[in-house]
């Protein structure tokens, strides 16, 4: 597949290189240059919107910053192209960093508003700062000079082509690197990313900065290509156009970005010529007819489903062949076409084209036999660290309050190194809250927590994770759109020490790190029995496998303490039996395990110590058998208003699921 892509890419490149010879008309060449420039911007914007999942309506502002910086440097300072472009990229990167700050606090529609405001402010500033920018009159820029020769439009085309190719490679390498995986993890689950040692703030800012750098490159190329820039060229419409191009082409795809850029640049031009517009409509009818026909034959649509769109298309065709003057209707038609495409192809053109392959892959992996967990060693165990009776973790008088409710009321907990420590109690008793306190997601209002001799209160989750505490979540928090292997690789991010230059140049040292991380991740998948599913998207896994994957991902941190929040919930009996074996093996690797579980047979059989919480207070602690017969514990399970979930059918009949059954 990689080779096919490479050959296809080279072919396209040869075609692109021959383009100036093919076009006699300089106007068309100019359109292609604009497509290339937009594509560079969209590559970067996709990092933010597609991978990190942050909406941006501020990229026109960044584009303007790049254009004006390059324009001003070349006109006012008279510096050459190869100084102006990097400077523009750097300045835009700084602005991107500024734009990141609101994104650390707000997301979704609010972030869209903030970024839009940012872009508007940039426009106003350019308008107002007459002394520097010439205000509304704009700035004249000339084509770059190389070795005393001013480039012609045709020669500049090759500069843009080179920029597109280099940006394509750079963005692809970034996205395949630990950076890209961190960005995508932020989208999947920020809280899980944090708990895997991926600092959410740091990587969000990085995503904005990298994205802005490409906007800066695109902007600077734009000023040289147009030879004239004015503030009204970077307005609201351009923001919408960029976002539209990205969605239209398909997020998370470089080819999609090029396609999207082509559509938003070419379509309005085609719409200005009636004859061209008519042939476009005919083409559209043919494509829709083919798609609908194929869909009906393969029973993917019912006739009723396609009736409305076909009717709408018919009305559109009648309208299209009845108008005599297209210039007035241009924007309306453009808008309608865009709406239709986005409505019917929510994943963009590339998403639509890729769909059959994704389905094929899913079918294939569903057909492969699911492997059992295997008895492979996770890592060399350090025997000396294993057998100590010292507490690895100590919490004293932890208080955690939500409004008036004390979810944890002076809880003291001591976890012995190398043990499996059960944490049980009725629903709402504060078990998960305790886990969130230990992993830094909540900061307790009082109390102390010490792990391995260091206080962890107030430390950010990513630091705590890298310090040796890994966890899973009660409601599974995987990076859904990433593959099983990538999910585990995210937690290996801390093993990478090479920086961005090594990634961009794909240096051997960095490649070794990638390979090492991949080998270790595959070993973990083998251990968990998930190796055959390595390329499957995490969200497509059956629920039980998702839970196992989450444990595998946590193991990638090579933790000293592993917290499992109801790992057996929703698992079938044979899966639970596997899980018990896995947990024991993890403990044998020297990892201390804290287990929150409702399956009492499991808790009683594998835990060395059990702590019982009720209404935020510790009511019992000790060996499982002792705790089990404690009257306060029985009372908590019987008398509490909290309702126990229906126990899963057990693999061993006669073994009680909840404490009280045994006592009754
Ligand atoms: P458990 O895991 O033992 O079932 P939790 O620790 O999830 O219980 O919850 C303990 C109590 O704290 C519950 O009453 C719950 O509603 C409350 N709680 C937990 N997290 C929050 C939160 N973020 N905001 C408000 N209340 C919360
Ligand atoms: Mg819970």
Write the topology of this structure:
Layout: H1 2-22, H2 26-52, H3 59-75, H4 81-103, H5 108-128, H6 130-133, E1 139-140, E2 145-146, E3 149-150, H7 153-176, H8 178-188, H9 190-195, H10 200-226, E4 228-229, H11 236-249, H12 254-270, H13 274-297, H14 303-320, H15 330-344, H16 348-367, H17 383-386, E5 391-402, E6 405-416, E7 420-424, H18 431-438, E8 446-451, E9 454-455, H19 461-466, E10 469-471, H20 484-490, H21 500-505, H22 508-528, H23 543-555, E11 561-565, H24 573-588, E12 592-596, H25 600-606, E13 609-614, E14 617-622, H26 624-628, H27 631-639, H28 659-663
Parallel strand pairs: 7-12, 7-13, 10-11, 11-12
Antiparallel strand pairs: 1-4, 2-3, 5-6, 5-8, 8-9, 13-14
Helix pairs in contact: 2-7, 2-8, 2-10, 2-12, 3-4, 3-5, 3-10, 4-10, 7-8, 7-10, 8-10, 8-20, 11-12, 11-16, 12-16, 13-14, 20-22, 20-23, 22-23
Bound molecules: adenosine-5'-diphosphate and magnesium ion (MG).
Magnesium ion is lined by residues 431-432, 474.
């Amino acid at each position: 597949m990689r080779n096919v892509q490479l050959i296809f890419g080279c072919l396209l490149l040869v075609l692109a290189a021959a383009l100036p010879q093919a076009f006699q008309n300089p106007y068309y060449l100019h359109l292609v240059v604009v497509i290339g420039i937009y594509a560079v911007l969209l590559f970067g914007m996709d990092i933010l919107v597609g991978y990190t999942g942050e909406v941006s309506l501020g990229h026109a502002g960044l584009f303007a910053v790049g254009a004006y910086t390059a324009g001003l440097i070349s006109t006012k300072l008279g510096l050459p192209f190869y100084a102006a472009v990097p400077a523009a990229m750097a300045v835009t990167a700084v602005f991107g960093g500024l734009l990141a700050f609101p994104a650390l606090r707000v997301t979704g529609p609010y972030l869209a508003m903030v970024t839009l405001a940012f872009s508007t402010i940039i426009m106003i500033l350019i308008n107002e700062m007459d002394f520097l920018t010439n205000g509304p009159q704009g700035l004249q820029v000339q084509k770059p000079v190389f070795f005393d020769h001013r480039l012609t439009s045709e020669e500049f085309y090759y500069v843009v082509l080179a920029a597109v190719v280099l940006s394509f490679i750079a963005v692809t390498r970034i996205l395949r690197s630990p950076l890209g995986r961190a960005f995508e993890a932020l989208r999947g689950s920020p809280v899980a990313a944090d708990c895997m040692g991926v600092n959410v703030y740091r990587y969000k800012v990085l995503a904005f900065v990298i994205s802005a750098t490409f906007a800066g490159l695109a902007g600077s190329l734009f000023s040289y290509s147009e030879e004239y820039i004015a503030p009204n060229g970077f307005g609201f419409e351009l923001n919408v156009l960029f976002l539209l191009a990205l969605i239209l082409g398909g997020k998370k795809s470089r080819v999609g970005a090029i396609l999207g850029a082509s559509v938003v640049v070419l379509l309005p031009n085609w719409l200005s010529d009636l004859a061209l517009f008519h042939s476009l409509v005919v083409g559209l009818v043919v494509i829709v007819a083919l798609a609908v026909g194929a869909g009906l034959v393969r029973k993917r649509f019912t006739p009723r489903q396609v009736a409305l769109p076909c009717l709408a298309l018919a009305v559109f065709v009648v309208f299209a062949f009845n108008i005599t003057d297209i210039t007035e209707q241009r924007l309306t038609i453009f808008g309608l076409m865009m709406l239709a495409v986005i409505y019917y192809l929510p994943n963009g053109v590339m998403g639509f084209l890729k769909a059959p392959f994704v389905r094929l892959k899913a079918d294939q992996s569903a057909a492969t036999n699911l492997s059992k967990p295997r008895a492979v060693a996770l890592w060399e165990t350090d025997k000396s660290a294993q057998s100590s009776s010292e507490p690895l973790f100590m919490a004293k008088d932890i208080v955690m309050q939500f409004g008036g409710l004390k979810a944890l009321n002076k809880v003291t907990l001591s976890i012995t190194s190398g043990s499996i420590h059960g944490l049980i109690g009725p629903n709402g008793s504060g078990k998960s809250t305790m886990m969130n306190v230990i992993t830094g997601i909540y900061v307790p209002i009082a109390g102390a927590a010490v792990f391995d001799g260091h206080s962890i209160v107030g430390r950010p989750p990513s630091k705590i994770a890298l310090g040796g505490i890994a966890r899973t979540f009660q409601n599974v928090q995987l990076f859904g759109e990433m593959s099983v292997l990538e999910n585990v690789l995210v937690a290996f991010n801390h093993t990478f020490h090479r920086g961005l230059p090594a990634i961009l140049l794909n240096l051997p040292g960095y490649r070794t790190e990638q390979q090492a991380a991949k080998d270790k991740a595959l070993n973990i998948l083998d251990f968990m029995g998930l190796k055959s599913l390595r390329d499957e998207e995490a969200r497509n896994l059956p629920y039980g496998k998702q839970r196992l994957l989450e444990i595998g991902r946590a193991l990638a941190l090579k933790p000293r303490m592993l917290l499992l929040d109801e790992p057996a919930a929703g698992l079938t009996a044979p899966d639970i039996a596997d899980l018990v074996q896995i947990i024991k093996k993890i403990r044998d690797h020297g990892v201390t395990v804290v287990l929150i579980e409702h399956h009492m047979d499991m808790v009683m059989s594998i835990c060395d110590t059990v702590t019982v919480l009720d209404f935020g207070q510790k009511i019992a602690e000790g060996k499982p058998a002792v705790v089990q017969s404690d009257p306060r514990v029985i009372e908590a399970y019987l008398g509490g208003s909290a309702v126990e979930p229906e126990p899963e059918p057990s693999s061993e009949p006669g073994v009680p699921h909840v404490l009280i059954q045994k006592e009754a």
